[in-house]
Design goal:
The chain is α+β, with helices and mostly antiparallel strands. The protein has 6 helices and 8 strands; from the N terminus they run H-H-E-H-E-E-H-E-E-H-E-E-H-E. Among the domains are: about 70 residues, Alpha-Beta Plaits, CATH 3.30.70; about 80 residues, Alpha-Beta Plaits.
């Protein structure tokens, strides 16, 4: 029993001596980490009492946007067929240009009327009401279109005359009548063409070949001075 106890004590002593490296063996990981931490001469102070300066941002190359001069020209009151051809040419050969098309309509005087009814039967009911009010001058619009089954109560050359006729009907009790300008169906169009001024000479040459008798003009201006 004494021999066993002596052997255990001896074994513990030998392990302790080996762990400290006295037998030439590598030191344990704990001792190695302690030795590596004890090197104050390798410490570097980067700042005292304030965070380190942020790195300077990289300077991006300056990009200068060149403003392109714009121009607007109008090809006015073209027959619709010519307007179609010009619009197709610009779309095909000059996609950078923006085209605004405006229908050209002409006034054909004024008229006083009752707005369109949903059916001929409804229009006939309004005709009966007009007859009861003593109105005999009327006409029910029969043709297809937005004014189908409207009731015309008279046509006039001027707006003043139309307003006077409307006032007479109102005194008779016709409350749903109103007046408006009569516009003929559009047979021509104007094209406002917006695009880079530097390319406009090429556009004018191309359109002159297509429409040699037509000369463009500057676009009309609106109240604030901008082109329409």
């Amino acid at each position: 029993m004494r021999v066993l106890i002596f052997a255990l004590i001896l074994a513990n002593l030998l392990f302790l001596v080996w762990a400290r490296g006295h037998f030439g063996s590598p030191a344990s990981s704990e001792f190695a980490r302690v030795e590596q931490q004890l090197h104050p001469e390798k410490l570097v102070v980067v700042s005292r009492g304030r965070p380190p300066d942020a790195p300077a941002p990289r300077q991006n190359a300056a990009v200068t946007e060149q403003k392109v001069d714009q121009l607007c020209q109008t090809w006015a009151e073209l027959p619709n067929a010519d307007a179609d051809r010009l619009e197709a040419l610009l779309a095909e050969q000059f996609p950078a240009f923006k085209v605004i098309r405006r229908a050209v309509t002409e006034s054909n005087g004024y008229w006083v009327f009752i707005p369109p009814s949903a059916s001929r039967e409804a229009a006939d009911e309004k005709v009966a009401e007009l007859q009861q009010l003593g109105v005999q001058d009327y006409f029910v619009v029969q043709g297809n279109g937005p004014n189908r089954f409207a009731i015309s109560l008279g046509t006039y050359h001027t707006e003043e005359a139309a307003q006077a006729g409307l006032a007479t009907l109102r005194r008779k009790g016709v409350k749903t009548a109103q007046s408006a300008e009569r516009l003929t169906k559009s047979i021509s169009s104007s094209l406002d063409v917006h695009g880079p001024a530097a390319t406009f000479d090429t556009v004018r040459q191309a359109t002159a070949t297509l429409l040699p008798k037509v000369t463009p003009t500057s676009c009309p201006t609106v109240a604030n001075g901008a082109t329409s």
